[in-house]
Amino acid sequence: MSKALRQPADLDVSRPSPARIYDYMLRGTHHFDADAQAAERILTVVPEIRDCAWANRGFHQRAAAWIARQGVSQFLDIGSGLPAVGNTHDVVQRIHPDARVVYVDNDPMVELHSRGNLDESGRVSVLCADLRDPDSILGHPAVRTLIDPARPAGLLMTAVLMFVADEADPWRLVDSYLRALPPGSYLALSHLTDDAKPPVSVDAFHRVFDRATGQLHFRSKAQVARFFDGLEFVPPYQGATPALTYSGLWGAEDVQLADSDGSRWLYCAVAKKPLSRSR
Ligand SMILES: C[S@@+](CC[C@H](N)C(=O)[O-])C[C@H]1O[C@@H](n2cnc3c(N)ncnc32)[C@H](O)[C@@H]1O
After folding, report:
1. Right CATH number for 18-272 from 3.10.620.30, 3.40.50.150, 3.10.20.740, 3.30.70.3270?
2. Could you read off the pLDDT of 202-254 as tens digits, one per residue?
3. What are the CA-CA distances from residue 25 to residues 50, 59, 125, 158 (Å)?
4. Spatial contact of 128 and 111, defined as CB atoms under 8 Å apart
5. What sign does the dihedral 162-178-249-64 (CA atoms) show?
6. Ligand 1 mean position to 80 CA, how many Å?
7. Ligand 1: which atom is nearest the Cα of residue 110?
8. pLDDT digit string (tens) for 45-72?
9. Angle at 69 between CA 94 and CA 103, to 5 degrees
10. Ligand 1 centre from 79 Cα, in Å?
11. What's the CA gap between 207 and 226, in Å, rounded?
């Protein structure tokens, strides 16, 4: 951990947070000792978890770039995480230099550290907000200024809904964001699964988050697929049938090389909002 790491006033650094544990997995510098210790405990029960984090981050970047290449130049990145190599605006502004991105995360460290990372153009903004309150996010001045509701947008919700309990109805929440966006918009989403995983690893993984600022919720393939109800999946890689897949495979040039135990902890997909959507 860097001694100079800036932190918001009154942050309880003794409790690990999902954003900072993930930062540790990606070998970032925005975490405290409690986050590093929690991450090391996960590594002892799921040794491939670092590969899982990289596979997810790779999916996030490939999906954002792919959506941009479809002509989309505005993005709402919810559960965006701490600044990392290849932030969304870095990726999509390579394709559309004037692309706009609003980052949303409920960890105050994300807002603090993302601010210093933004360009001066005013095309990128960051909000500290909880995705369980879509009205306040969609009504926020930054979103209203940067995201034109008349033009298709990219909604990025990668590795975030696993921190939302069933009681908060994450499927309804995703639907609320999609309803605010016009047809032709895309959803890119990834989600942790316990399908085909050793229950003892899943249980130990889960328990690391007991004291964290957000708890983990694993979901099955069918539960993850429900996030895409009424949308049209795009093929995850050349020659594939449009569908949900494992995180490493999406956008892979060589599917066999991209397949790995780590990447099989997350399902992911990109899907388009069609002209007529059933819900
Ligand atoms: C595992 S990281 C994923 C970061 C990034 N989306 C990616 O895929 O590389 C999960 C992020 O979701 C954020 N998060 C968790 N629950 C959230 C909530 N209810 N509202 C907003 N952000 C949330 C965490 O703070 C964390 O930064």
Report:
1. 3.40.50.150
2. 999 999 999 999 999 999 999 999 999 999 999 999 999 999 999 999 999 99
3. 5, 16, 25, 16
4. yes
5. negative
6. 6
7. 27
8. 999 999 999 999 999 999 999 999 999 9
9. 60
10. 3
11. 26
